[in-house]
Design brief:
Elements lengths: L4 E5 L4 H10 L7 E5 L5 E5 L7 E5 L6 H17 L4 E6 L18 H12 L3 E5 L14 E4 L2 H8 L7 E5 L5 H11 L3 E7 L8 E6 L6 E9 L3 H12 L4 E9 L5 H7 L4 E5 L7 H4 L3 E4 L2 H13 L9
Parallel strand pairs: 1-4, 4-5, 5-6, 6-7, 8-9, 8-11, 11-12, 12-13, 13-14
Antiparallel strand pairs: 2-3, 9-10
Helix pairs in contact: 1-9, 4-5
The chain binds ribose-5-phosphate.
């Protein structure tokens, strides 16, 4: 390895960070977080990071804003302790859906996050499946975006995929779903889903492609409140799909998500561990959780050794 590789974890990402460190046969580097009664936080790094190649793992999970501040303060602390390079590892990028000005006078918070991460002192970002490709361009520092598709597809190939159609739940996700269709050599159907403003209950108006009598495999980047998935599944059933599976990378699972997903009666819901699901996973029926830890560990190793990460997008 080129430089001493150290992995720190913020609280929300601890479970995944431990797995990543385990793959790399390392312990997490030591630090302490002090929270004062005025809600200020202080991070103290408990080992030498001078000239080290530091990776700080954090994800977007509640309490979201505390988690963002914790990461920024941690980046600042290692930078001022003379780390040679700091990479913010964000399996699920915060504010990923706030990525464009599609209404007048609104914030583009995914860009603000990029500015804050760089301003705190990060030299690079490593993330996974951003909601939209333009977010990568928000960064003035190098940003590598991993794709969970190889992990999902390795798992899906073990199933009987005869008579299966890949479903993009809306036009915006057609490219992502299309890449699964290509990898799995399956046809693609695209739903015309519309959402009015911030509405959590979108409506499916039409389908491009054939789902009748087929097994539908819905591909999405995230499940947040479950509204999209619920509407997608009922539209697919109305359109005559026999069975419905869903593969969604980031399990945000907030609001009424658990009830909505269970009500949807999927054959199987496949998610990853980019967001900690804690006790929620025990309440979801037919759930499979795939780990992204191996992929992140390989990416971290490659970045540390100055090797290409594009070979990881098989
Ligand atoms: C939408 O553009 C995304 O790809 C997801 O479908 C959406 O973020 C899921 O949100 P929710 O579960 O709240 O409907």
């Amino acid at each position: 390895m080129r430089d001493r590789l150290l992995i720190f974890s913020c609280r929300a990402a601890k479970e995944l960070a431990l797995k990543i460190a385990g793959v790399l046969r390392k312990d997490l580097a030591e630090h302490e977080l002090i929270q004062f009664s005025n809600e200020n936080m202080k991070v103290r790094i408990l080992e030498n990071v001078r000239e080290a190649d530091v990776f700080i793992v954090q994800t977007s999970a509640p309490p979201l804003h505390d988690g963002i501040m914790e990461m920024l303060i941690m980046i600042d602390a290692v930078k001022h302790a003379s780390a040679r390079r700091v990479t913010a590892v964000l399996p699920y990028y915060p504010y990923t859906r706030s990525d464009k000005k599609d209404e007048p006078r609104i914030s583009i918070t995914a860009r603000l996050m990029a500015d804050l991460i760089a301003a705190a002192g990060a030299d690079r970002v490593l993330t996974m499946n951003l909601h939209s490709p333009q977010i990568q361009g928000f960064f003035k520092i190098p940003a590598d975006q991993l794709d969970a598709a190889p992990i999902m597809c390795d798992y899906l190939r073990r199933k009987d995929l005869a008579n299966t159609v890949i479903v993009a739940p809306d036009a915006g996700s057609a490219k992502r779903a299309g890449s699964y269709a290509t990898r799995l050599d399956l046809p693609l159907a695209i739903l015309d889903k519309r959402r009015s403003a911030d509405d959590e209950s979108p409506e499916v108006l039409a389908v491009i492609g054939d789902v009748e009598g087929k097994t539908a495999l819905v591909i999405d980047d995230e499940i947040s409140t479950g509204g999209s998935l619920q509407e997608t599944v009922s539209a697919l059933r109305r359109l005559g799909a026999e069975k419905v599976y869903a593969a969604c990378v980031h399990p945000v699972l907030c609001g009424k998500a658990i009830d909505r997903i269970n009500d949807a009666t999927l054959e199987e819901l496949i998610i990853t561990d980019t967001v900690p699901t804690g006790d929620k996973r025990n309440h979801l029926r037919n759930l499979t959780v795939l780990s992204v830890s191996q992929l992140f560990a390989e990416a971290i190793r490659s970045i540390n050794q100055g090797e290409s990460v594009s070979s990881l997008f098989r």
